[in-house]
Specification:
Two copies of one chain form a homodimer. Chain A is globular. Chain A has two domains: about 280 residues, Nitrilase/N-carbamoyl-D-aminoacid amidohydrolase; about 210 residues, HUPs (Rossmann fold). The first copy, chain A, is α/β, with parallel strands linked by helices. Helices cover about 35% and strands about 15% of the residues of chain A.
Chain lengths: ~600, ~600
Amino acid sequence: MSKFRSMDAFMQLNLHQTHHEIADFEGIFKYLTATFQQGNHEGLHVFPELFLTGYPLQDLPLKKTFIDDYQAFLEDLSVWSERQLKSKGPLALLFGGLRYEFDTLGWPSYIENVMYILEPGKKLRSLYTKQLLPNYDIYEEKKYFTAGHQSEVFEFCGKKFGLLICEDIWFSHLHDMDPVEQLKSHEQKCDAVIAINASPYHLGKVETRINRALEISQFLEAPFIYVNRVGAEDEILFDGHSFVVDGNSVVKMGAGFKSQVVNLDLPVYQSPEKQNVRPYHSSTNSWSTIFSTRLSSDTLTLQPMGEAGCREVLDALLLGIRDYSEKNGLKKFSIALSGGMDSALVVTILKLLQKTYPIEIEAIFLPGFFSSSISYDLSYDLCRNLGIKLTTMPIKFIHSTIRSAYKDNFGNELKGIADENIQSRLRGALIYMRSNDMNSAVLNTSNKSELSVGYSTIYGDSVGALSVLGDLFKLEVFELAHYINKHHGNLIPADIISRPPSAELREDQEDSQSLPPYDRLDPILEALLSSRFTPQDLIKRGHKQDEVLKVYQLLSKSEYKRKQFCPIIKVKPKSFGFGHRVPISKKML
Amino acid sequence: MSKFRSMDAFMQLNLHQTHHEIADFEGIFKYLTATFQQGNHEGLHVFPELFLTGYPLQDLPLKKTFIDDYQAFLEDLSVWSERQLKSKGPLALLFGGLRYEFDTLGWPSYIENVMYILEPGKKLRSLYTKQLLPNYDIYEEKKYFTAGHQSEVFEFCGKKFGLLICEDIWFSHLHDMDPVEQLKSHEQKCDAVIAINASPYHLGKVETRINRALEISQFLEAPFIYVNRVGAEDEILFDGHSFVVDGNSVVKMGAGFKSQVVNLDLPVYQSPEKQNVRPYHSSTNSWSTIFSTRLSSDTLTLQPMGEAGCREVLDALLLGIRDYSEKNGLKKFSIALSGGMDSALVVTILKLLQKTYPIEIEAIFLPGFFSSSISYDLSYDLCRNLGIKLTTMPIKFIHSTIRSAYKDNFGNELKGIADENIQSRLRGALIYMRSNDMNSAVLNTSNKSELSVGYSTIYGDSVGALSVLGDLFKLEVFELAHYINKHHGNLIPADIISRPPSAELREDQEDSQSLPPYDRLDPILEALLSSRFTPQDLIKRGHKQDEVLKVYQLLSKSEYKRKQFCPIIKVKPKSFGFGHRVPISKKML
């Protein structure tokens, strides 16, 4: 320690906003040994929650294969740090990981979500166990982990750091203790607070985190260091945005949606001016914030995402597709274009992804008897704008063949919903046929409005490996399309955005024949999906009774379609997918 | 009370092993008011856990619509019992339900899983709160409910009843207290113990429950009354089998897989003979029992289900299909027959269901270029045996049309996996076309072996509203077919059972070209899915290295197919579906 420069002058903080694939123990070991090989690092290096394993792990920590590999990895880390980790000055690595306790038979008796420390010449050791385990919506940490019961202040180079892990900062009625309050009453006053996180992204979350961090910084009178994971895991995104706040100011803000090492000197706490003092607990989790909506207070309109929101969501979707592709070896994409808004937006987003990530994209137009010529023209214009090849494979003749075969074998004409849906399923089968032949992936193009009311054909337009727009209502799909046209050149033909939405499965079909207009449908859906409104509440607030009841029924009855749907990139607080759990069989609710 | 006959002589117990649809408040209210309308009931009536709401409810208890309706229902019950419930003798109704506490804004501050009591002239009141909340595998009660912390002994007609709710009897390392031990040390000695349950079925569970009940009865020196829910909720089945044990004997055993009111007089505790005394805790939950396997100890063979097991599983599947159909309004079924084992077994099970439940069944054979004539002959023989009409709709010409269209539009021949899978997807689309036209439902015919290794075509043979065989390995499918042939007439042609399994998607295809033989595949899968074995463990025990590693890889890489699969009727301790949570994107584990 004596070699180190005066601690009061500065201490270097390094926030490793990193990403590795789940259970990529080898990759993480290589990253650490490569990063610290030169011995020219010093200071405090902080990595995200569960850096050593990835998150969310779901059942993996219960599997013997995972446990054996992970325990060997911990041992490797310990040996490396004890024997090989060198530094010219004081050095400590703080990162999240799992800590197992085993029973006499060798089976886990419990698993903790902890903060580990590595220091040169020392073995790996656990410093702190996460106390608040989130267990709502997409979270289910109580299923796997055992909570800690003790706050921890860690000393490094004469500075005292209060330690917290993710949910620990979000005290609410869901928990029975407050780890931040524990630090306040800890015998050692903190010079800074370190929170390591694997905090999933949703629109607006960055602001929520910073507001809470400012509160805590003021409450504990210490700078607050927030390190977040980055990267996408199937449907769940981690957005990075690591930061440091102090008193009433944001000292440092990390990048969103990409890996980065953020370096800074540890700030010294500055009290805010009186008018800027925040009460503690002004923005914590509670029943109402967890189920917050993006509705104007009368629930009759959906708030637009805005320019900043669109930019953020676009970045999120790009990361979501990219990481899913990379982890699952997807290098080519085959997209079925309909001439409509949703598929146009998906292929445009893929094109934007292609600017920074090498993928091949092909567009396929599968016109049927009811596809209008304008659908082809618009798909053609779109592909020309994007510089993507468009192949047309008409389904009319195949459809005719099926109609004849049906009549021949079952004795009656194919008509109505059966004749409509076979077109959609034929397209689903054909786009997957192409994807099998090209070894490409199919992205789903459904939006959240359709998914909510079941306005899609199962195994038809609902196919795909990953849903890009499944967490965006139709109004938001339009908003994002406008945003992209404004900021990335007019890629999407204006007529695609302005034409009335239609599935084109029968003569002159339009969405509005089956559903309320989207500017009325979407707010009803947002309200009902939040769980905070009953149909009666919405009718009282001025929504049309027949529309509300119809939407409510469609939502309730279409659960079976969502159960077989692909992962949806999550960009909202409440999404379909892992955090949405509703029985198929039930009295309508 | 004075009117009632001597309590020592007897007390009538009525175990209502009932089923109502989830959130069917109106139906439950009608059932109660109708059952007790005459006023000629007396004694103690015990209903299952969460009788008032159904189970599992998943997110429903968090929805304002559910909360409002449920609170109104509780109020109705209270008013009814206070004003209208009459009885000629002492009467008490014990049942499970939810109890909400609300904050000042009217939002729930917590929810408890409780036992309520209704008595003539009195309001509804809560007696006991469930203390152990299961939160592993398919269970996630800690996500929704708050645990109680106090045991309860309830007195009725001079008898003292210890109260327990489901998981309360299954103390293990997963919990930090033992409600049974609490009753042992309670100041009031119990004359009997009542446990109300919503205990999901799996093969072998009845025996496990009885063993545990006998232990507890001896430990507390009191008869043990076990009331279970019956009925199917999507994938999860409740099997009934309510019972009363006393000392070392089973006093009463309720029916399996159907509603029933079991009546008996409360037994007086009989100590078992010394040689029959069981140690307390001989059969509780633990890591190893939760992840138990049906393997012989060397892991090289899968234990057969046996005659009793087959009968039980068949009953379970019949109930699973029936309740799903009833709740979702399915009255007709369209089944695609391939001439193979799985589809033959599914249609045969439907036929058995038809004996007690009115449904229409139609079978469809969709032969392609590679369907052998024997596949038709066997499908024909099967349908003749079952008395079901078989319609053939060849896909050859449609397939040819698609091949031509593909070549015309994409410029190359359709071949390999693309040409194989299009046949499967075409069949998927066509059977759904038929189902749309007939307003019928399609049942999935995949087995657990296929599902495990991803040996199926997504949107092809993997389609369906409900999976009947998805929790049975291929060996078990054969075993169940033999059982049905033995006990229900030789419905399934012997050649269907004996022919080598094939998808018939290319010339001379057989499953064994892609997979190890099922008698080697299935034990490897059972071991890996239990989470208790690593591939290395299996190789050490004599499994072939190349087979184990291949199966392991297929299992790991096919998660994306299972994510889009329909609900599977659960008949095993560890099943795909709600209790199986594995990320798609991960380093192979």
